[in-house]
Design brief:
Elements lengths: L1 E3 L21 H12 L3 H9 L7 E5 L5 H7 L5 E6 L2 H9 L3 E4 L11 E7 L10 H10 E10 L9 H9 L14 H13 L3 E7 L4 E7 L34
Parallel strand pairs: 1-4, 2-3, 2-5, 3-4, 5-6
Antiparallel strand pairs: 6-8, 7-8
Helix pairs in contact: 2-3
Length: 250
Amino acid sequence: MVEIAGGPFSEASPSIMTGSLIYNSALMYEAVMRLLYGRWYNERYQSVADLIGEGSSVLDVCCGPGTLFQRYLKAKRVRYTGLDINRHFIDRLCAGGATGVVWNLKENRPLPRAEYVIIQSSLYHFLPDASSLVDRMIAAAEKRVLIAEPIRNIADSRIRPLAFLACKLTNPGTEDQPSRFDLARLDALMERYRRRGHATRSQLIAGGREKLYILQIGHEFDHCRADTTLYPAQAPLPHPGSSRPAGTVE
C-alpha cells in the first residue's frame, strides 16, 4: 500500500514542489545513475546490501525507485519500507511488493523504526546541517545505521555550466541544493557520532566515489562477513592511476 506520511489518507505537504526531470521517471533516474557510476553501479548497491542480515527489517530513507530492494534485498526476504518525497518512485516500489511511504524528510518528525536504517547518495539534500536527519535515523535504528554518500561530485566541478546543471538536475521536489559533501566535510559530520560513543566503521565504495559509514546501535560490531572489508574512518582516497583498491590501508 502506498501511504502519505501522516497516514494513508493525508494530503501531501504543501512544501513539496515539482522535482527535476530525472525524478519524473524511474527509468531516466536509473539511466543517469548508471552513466555517473559506470562499472561501479552494481558494486555501490551490493556494498550496502552485504551488510544487511537476511529477514531483517529495513528502512530506506530517500529510497528513490527502490533499486536497492528490488535487485539486492528482495531475495533476502527483508521487511523493507522505503521513504521518498517522490510519489512516482513510491508507486513503483509498492508495485514490486515493498512498503512505500511518501514522506518529506525535511520535516522534523520521528522515522519508523527498523533494524537497519539506510540512506544512500542523498544526505547532501539536508545540508547545511544534515545532523538532524542522522539523529532521527539513529533514533529509529535497532541495529545499524548505514550512510553512503558521494565525496566526488559533478556539482563541485570548476566548469561552472556543468556544476550549475548538476545542481538543477538533482532537485527531488524540495529545492535546488548547490552544496555537496567532500571527504573532509563528511568525515567531520560522522566524527560527531563516534565521539558520542557510537561504534563507527567506514570504507570507500564505488571506486572511491562514495564513502560508506556503518554506525552500530547499542552493541559491539558482530562478526558478519561484510565487516571483514571495513576500514578506518580516515582511509585515504587512492591516488589517480594507483592500482591499490579504493579504501585499502597500507
